[in-house]
Amino acid sequence: MLPVFALALVFGLLFGISSGFGLPFMTEIVFPKIFADEAEQLSFWLLLGVAAIIPLAFSVRGLSGYLNTYLISLCGIRVLESIRADIFNKFQKLPLAYFHKRASGDLVSRCLADTTAVQHTLTEVANDAIKQPMTLLGAIGYLTYASFQSREVFFLLLCLAIVPICVFPIRAFGKRLLKRSRQTQRQLGGMTGFLSDNLRSAREIRAFNLEERQSENFRSQIRRLLRLQLKVVKYKKALPPVIEVIASFGLAVAFLYAYRSGLDYDTFIPLLMALYLSYEPIKKLGMIQNSLQKGRGALDRLEEILREPVTIRDPENPRVIGRLTGDVAFENVTFAYENVPVLHGIGARLNSRTVCALVGPSGAGKSTFANLIPRFFDPIEGAVKIDGIDIREMRLADLRRNIAIVSQDPILFNDTLFNNILIGRPEATHDDVLRAAQQAHAREFIETFENGFETIVGENATRLSGGQKQRVALARAFLKNAPILILDEATSALDSESEATIKDALARLVENKTVLIIAHRFSTISLAGRILYFEEGRILADGTHSELYQDCAPYRNLYERQKG
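Above: the chain's sequence. Below: its structure in token form.
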């Protein structure tokens, strides 16, 4: 990348010299001498050589300008490619808490729309970022040379005095453009989130007759975005004519001074050309400033992601572990979501090969308790240990390789059914996948599809019923065969017949494993030999169903409400 950028600088330098210095120099030095009355008649070949200077100069200017633009654009695109990859890679490392407090549509907008805005800015800037400063330096260099040659230093100072005046509108417009650009990107992110929610909730919108309301809301958001975009256009397009007006005053004053001081026409024209060539880059540099401020608004939003600390990370010197036995211990664990306490001094020990149900009202802390085991979150106080090892001393990949999770609402990727099961253990064989599907009672419905295991499930697995999705997720767990299994109401999406059919498979799945069943209904805890009853972030009772029913009134009341 560095050699490419260096070449771009070289070609930009050639363009600037040929434009800002070369053209005025030929106008004043070369051509006046040839057309002078006392000049000797040139031979045909020498005249041809002099004439060739014109296309040669423009060829050097055109080729160097093209190569400069292309190479800088190449650098810009490579940089943006790297930023996009870094943003996506950062998404894979950020803790789950980060995604809980941010809209997915806004994050999608940052990864796609904001990076596109930055890329567009770099592409725009690439055309002039090097050429225009070099042209300005070349023109000023010629003005310096010509002014000292004709002893018109005041003319040089007069010309250069206009340059700092042009800085004031550039700065003023730039500040306003940055503010509006940030507002535009935020509005675009919000609109992307609204659109994402709308597409994801198509059934609910129709069920509640929300079509007109959603359409009006979207039109309102489009209007707000349009107003902000017009303000960006206003500040971006107003700057060039403002600089042109300022430059025109400089040219007018130069003309008056040249006339009053008696400069001859042949001397004044090259100076006027060089003066124009020095003002033109200033105008374009002002446009570059506008483009940079517009892109900065998007870049600031990207930097917020890149600077977000990764709190869940591998230790510097991780413990080497293989297959764990699954002995889980919570030692005085306290946890809070954004300073809102969820778990308070939890202490519990789950011996390996224990099947334990987590029961309690919504918001009692059951899911949080289970989510601490694969280290989706870290406790504020205390420690979670597996086989006597603090999980913060393990590599995340090693820890999570020993844990299988089946969620209440399983996520299937827009891929084949085979590959969706295979992610449970990517190195598994074809026969392993078929066996896992058979154990989860998924093979029977998969083979009814025309393409069988090669069937694409579609976005959000819309081609599958809730029970079918759940059985594919269970097949992943069968395939992974991890020593620790977390079932988050894993049979909730099954009808009564499917649930009865799969219970024997679940009985085989939980054998020789440490299992946590997050139970929202009591029909799912029949496999559990132990129950932890949660209430307000604490374990209120620990024991079998009969023990808790007899000794724990809140558990008994909850059970009777569901059964009644």
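The chain has a mean pLDDT of 78.
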